[in-house]
Amino acid sequence: MALSKLDNLYREIILDHSSHPHNHGELADANTNIEANNPTCGDVIKLTLNVDGDVVKAIKFDGHGCSISTASASMMTDLMVGKSKDEAYALIDDFLEVVKGGEGKIEDGLGDAEILSGVAKFPARIKCATLAWKALEQALFTEKDVEINHQPHSADDFGDE
Ligand code: ZN
User: Residues within 5 Å of ion ligand 1 by Cβ?
Assistant: First the structure.
């Protein structure tokens, strides 16, 4: 695919998600919520989730931010409905790798969010793209869970500029 075409597709999908975000608003029957922000850009996000045992039954996001952070939250929430904590963690892990320019391990796992691999070319925007995903990680896993089961993703992974 020609680079210009790829860029057009990238813009179109991001614009579509940011102007008509999916799962936008606040979940009425939430039992978990978290707020996160990206001071570099001014993005603020609030996630409300209904977690039943090990499964993300529903998730919504609210807040305000740039088109990349909004599109990314829209894509993330689409993906996570019905996922177990372990599946969610694997997707978060893949996504954080892909936006740094790496390869995802789960084939077709990221859906539309795969398109955000384009931000690897714009390091200043990586935090916009990862905000919602890191917020979800914090909401689903306590520090203790992360220590026992998972390698934590610290802010340092992405280097503060
Ligand atoms: Zn942003």
Answer: 41, 43, 66, 69, 128
Q: 123 near 101, Cβ under 8 Å?
A: no
Which residue spans within 8-54 are E strands per DSSP?
A: 32-38, 43-52
Q: What is the DSSP letter of 120?
A: G
pTM of the model: 0.86
Q: What is the predicted pLDDT for the residue at 160?
A: 41
How far, in Å, is the centroid of ligand 1 from the Cα of 113? 16
Token duo for residue 75: 């894509």
- pLDDT tens-digit profile of 100-129? 988 888 877 898 898 888 888 888 899 999
Domains defined along the chain, listed by start: 25-147 (3.90.1010.10)
Which class for 41: exposed (0-12), middle (13-18), buried (19 or more C-beta within 10 A)?
middle
Per the CB < 8 A criterion, the answer to whether 74 and 17 are in contact is yes
Q: Cα angle at 153 between 149 and 156, to 5 degrees?
A: 145
